[in-house]
Amino acid sequence: MLKKWREYVRFLREAVTGEEKEFTSGSINRAIFLLSIPMVLEMLMEGVFAVVDIFFVSRLGKEATATVGLTEGVMAQIMALSMGLSMAATAMVARRIGEKNREGAAIAAVQVIYLGIAVSIIMGVVFYFTAEDILRIMGGSPELIRVGSGYTRLLLSGSSTMFFIFLLNAIFRGAGDAAIAMRTLILANGCNIVLCPLFIFGLGPFPELGVTGAAVATTTGRGIGVLYQLWYLFNGRSLITIKKHHLKPAFGIMLRLMRVASTGVLQHFIPTTSWVLVIRIIAIFGDAAVAGYSIGIRIFVFTILPAWGMSQAASTLVGQNLGAGQPDRAETSVWRTAFYNMMFLTTVSIVFFIFAPQLVSFFTHEAEVTYHAIQCLRIVGLGCAFYAFGMVISQSFSGAGDTVTPSLINLVAFWGIQIPLSYLLAKPAGLGPEGVFWGIAISESLLAVFAILIFRRGKWKNVKI
Asked: What is the mean pLDDT of the chain?
């Protein structure tokens, strides 16, 4: 027993430190878990940003809490952009690593950074001047706009920090350096956790900024994380090391990245746009409904983030094994990862159904807000077993460089099913916010079914990147 325990500890240490970075040979189960453990921890750390913010902001009242929810809808669009380019980065870097071409991987990483800088400048300028208009369009009340416009302006105009955390972590994941991505978010989150209460409530010498303080803390924490990532890329300790001769712009590679990223952005833009419209439908029923949804969905997203970590592991395994000319090993990796994911998320679904009131009580005690948050957790959680397969297979398409297929699946599932179904159940059917929750659960489950049927056809194995 002691010997086995030592083996488990050694295995976990190997996963967290990222000692192994090449996953095209050996045990598939071992590869899945060596990649998944740091990626799961990375996703959990990203989720901590959202949970910490809502935990402290919920103490300021429903307007402040709803502000976070409405702003999150726009942040989701930024995330779609960052995820699209991140998927292209992971796919290209993983393919080069699978081909044993580290120089090519480093050059690709530099082009990703250049594209990220250009996009970040544009976003910062646009969002600085449109914060109040965004909250107004999203259905925020005059009081909400008065309380929350500072938060929205700072978080959105400073969103380049989130953008670069995603981009640079995608480079590390593609190289198999998932442990660096994990450590980045541990550092960024540690700063956010410390700074959030200081800036929100004005503790000690810090100014009392209210909900705006959450944006200050989050942006600062992520900025520190980005500096750490850049230090790792340039100091020679990563599998990918950027040197002076890599800094020359390579417009051919940029165009290939943009081609893959364009449909990758669309793949994520479709569900995030759906997210915005979902919040807009819920806003019809008042600030309490939006606040309840904001709390419920953040608990949900935080809890299922380990599943996204496993999905990212599948993406890296597909990219590296296709680069090594092993499509069958890539496919086996996907099915096994999806099975482990299903086991985890089924457990999560049971926990949500039984313990939703206890989970929500950490964030609010307002009766109406609590009711909507509990309903969100229980109803949306019913589809967890389906979500497990949908997540893994969608990321696997992307890891192969096929971002068109998941984009089309998302188009049908979100725009064709989720939005109209959510509205019909909420308004004409008279279910209110609960109708929206049912629309989310049904559409996400159907997405998984579509993804499985298309994945089995195997065309993704022949994508060139």
From this structure: 83
Structure-token pair, residue 218: 């989050």
**Residue 384: half-sphere exposure toward Cβ, Cα within 13 Å:** 26
The vertex-310 CA angle with 463 and 262, nearest 5°, equals: 40
Residue with tokens 């609010």, as numbered in its chain: 364
CA distance 388 to 405: 18
Least confident window among 40-44, 278-282, 284-288, 291-295 = 40-44
Q: What is the pLDDT of residue 274?
A: 82
Task: Quick: pLDDT tens for 170-183.
Answer: 888 777 776 787 78
Q: In which region does residue 27 sit, left (phi positive, over 0), alpha (psi from -120 to 50) or beta (all else)?
A: beta
Residue with token string 């800094």: 247
Residue 388's Cβ-count burial label (10 Å; 0-12, 13-18, 19+) is buried
Per the listing, tokens 């952005």 go with: 265
CA distance to 62, 69, 149, 279, 369, per residue, from 375 (Å): 18, 17, 29, 15, 10
Q: Where are the domains of the chain?
A: 30-460
**Residue 434, CB-side half-sphere exposure with 13 Å CA sphere:** 9
pLDDT at residue 429 greater than cutoff 80: yes
* Helices 384-399 and 62-98, axial angle in degrees (round to 10): 40
DSSP per-residue codes, 217-253: HHHHHHHHHHHHHHHHHHTT-SSS---GGG-S--HHH
**Hey, what's the torsion of the CAs at 351, 355, 359, 365, to 10 degrees?**
160
- Can you give the pLDDT at residue 172? 85
361 token code pair: 């009580």
pLDDT in tens, 28-45: 777 777 777 776 776 666
Q: Are 348 and 381 in contact (CB under 8 A)?
A: yes
**DSSP secondary structure code for residue 381 in this structure:** G
Distances (CA, A) of 296 to 69, 219, 430, 433: 10, 23, 21, 12
Using pLDDT thresholds of 50, 70 and 90, give the confidence band for residue 17.
low
Report which secondary-structure segment, H or E, holds 35. helix 28-57
The pTM of the full predicted model, rounded to 2 decimals, is: 0.66
Q: How many CA atoms lie within 13 A of 401 on its CB side?
A: 21
Tokens of 457: 């056809």
Contact between 416 and 465 under an 8 Å Cβ cutoff? The reply is: no
Q: What is the pLDDT of residues 105-160, one digit of tens each?
A: 888 889 988 988 988 898 888 888 888 888 888 777 788 888 788 888 888 888 88
